[in-house]
Amino acid sequence: MFEGQIAIVTGAGSPAGIGYAVAEELAKHGAFVVISDLPAFEARLDAAVANLKSRYPNVAMCAMDVSDAGSVDAAFSSITANYGPVDILVNNAGVGGGSSEFLQLSEADFKSAFDVNFMGAVNGCRAVLPSMRERGQGAIINIASLCGLGAIPEIPVSYTASKFAVVGLTKGIALEYAAEGIRCNAICPGAINTDMRKHLFERVAEEQNISTEDARAEEDAMIAMGRGGEPSEVARAVVFLADKNASYITGVALPVAGGMAPGV
Questions:
Q1: What is the mean pLDDT of residues 144-166?
Q2: Which residue, 114, 128, 224, 261, is most buried by CB atoms nearer than 10 A?
Q3: Full-model pTM
Q4: How far apart are the first and last CA of the chain?
Q5: C-alpha closest to that of 192 among 240, 156, 234, 157
């Protein structure tokens, strides 16, 4: 499906995360996949690459801080020099955190959310678009969130606002570059069983003085399918949007949420 194509997946160092699952699915379908994470997590990134390469030889790594445009430019230049121009970019790196109460959120909470979740995607798009324009092709998939479509209880406003921005970025790039053969779409995951969801339950349990199991049950009750999703289920949606079979799809913000409503 993706033979001969180069893909980059940011924030892919955690084996339990969406980025890792996306990298695995792209590699399974023939892409040469470069996974990235923060330089501080390079040991974890090494382990992730080793695990993936035991099954798929077409995997490499490159550490970068997506919130730092210089770090992103240097990493993408190295990737292009070593492997070739990028055909598929998956902007997955993201952070959560912060209080569910708006007035308890600090300026640092908002800065962190926008620096990583929004500007991380901006920096990635800026790095690949010139080459994609030269070749008249490319697919960008931004991992937003169901919170980018509506406010959901217990989710920090800082996170919600940053994911709305990612959806807006997606639509703006899709509109501007559609005529040049470049597609840009967003995936909006709902309650996915990752470390971020686990940390959400821990915070909600502490704030509400309930157990983490009760916190999970409360959220599962909001989902039509009655359960959280798996990273692999998000990954398969990414592969669909990256593939040329989705050649007439751009500018969408696709919920992968088991029927969970996008909130207010």
A1: 96
A2: 128
A3: 0.95
A4: 38
A5: 234
